Amino acid sequence: MSASAYHSPAPMTDYFLARQAILHPDKSLAAYELLYRRAGTGRAAVRDDLHATACVIAHASLLGIENVIGTCRAFVNLDATALMCDFVQFLPRDRVVLEILETVRATADVTARITELRRAGYVIALDDVMAYSDDVAKLAELVDIVKLDILATPQSGLPRLCRRFKAAGKKLLAEKVETRDQYLRCIDLGFDYFQGYYFGMPDVLTGRRPMLPTEATMRLLLQIVKPGSSAADAEHSILREPGLTATFMQLVRDATGIRQALLALGRLQTERWLLALLHAEEVACMR
Q: Which terminus of the chain, N or C, has less C-beta within 10 A?
């Protein structure tokens, strides 16, 4: 059944996503860090880290991950709450690096969750390291990449930090590189990756998406997780709401209809996607 049998086209709204290049020592492109933006210009103005992460996931998915990062990987920031949310695993494990923010403490729950995600195949990075604290020591054992804030780290202690992480087999990413001299010093210190204004400012991507009534999205999520519900039930609910119909067709670009989009995503990934949408609309986390 076509969407037009139920409703007129959904109203649209603009959305934004920033990306900043992460480079190899020879300045060739290695990855992008994906960053929250509320507008096409200016800084992030993040008020809630969970909301920001959900927006990054939702907007990168709607733009198409291949359109955003090409053949590279995407670094995506996670605070402690986002880390524990299941919607993080909507991200393709072979295309992303999960970046643990500096505010995250090495609790038993956090270390268990990082271990779970690594076993699932995700690459993990530790963000904004400036010193070797107890939390950094515990988390560094579980991650693949350590990002060192070279502006905030005491310059006398930077070589020692590099040697310690290198000896533990970690890849090093120099962030906030702003001058050629800083870049050359980090080359000498053996950094594997580089990021900062010296190489370029973040660029902002813009798209248009359907406006989504929170109540309709919540109802669909509850129906998806309800035991015994079918793809036909979900399809019927989506087709009744113009925003959801247009969003699913935008998300799964090669689908010929809502039923095919649902089958392509699968029940679990559909549930994760709806959770990300709800958080992007600043709804409280449901787990």
A: C
